[in-house]
Structures are given as C-alpha cells and as structure tokens.
Amino acid sequence: MDKIIQPFFTTKSGPHNGLGLTAVSQMVQALGGSFSITSKPGNGTVASILFPI
Q: What's the CA gap between 50 and 53, in Å, rounded?
C-alpha cells in the first residue's frame, strides 16, 4: 500500500506503466481535493476523492 501512488509502480505484467493512480492523485490535489485508498485483505479496497465545496 505504501507504493500504490508512486509513479511506475504496478503489480501487473504486460504493457502497464503504473501511472493511473499517480495521475489521479496529482489532479485531485491540484484541484484542492484529497485522495486516499484503504484496503483490507478479503474485504476489498476503497478509493476516496474529496473536494471542498
């Protein structure tokens, strides 16, 4: 989990470049929001994006 937002980190083989969550995180922060991910083995993963209104 500590590497999930790092550029080029991926757990998949093939033509994946590992930039998706990095791009999302940077765009959300640039717009004044926050991005977080929590995961529990066997229970799933939750990605949250919050923007101030």
A: 9
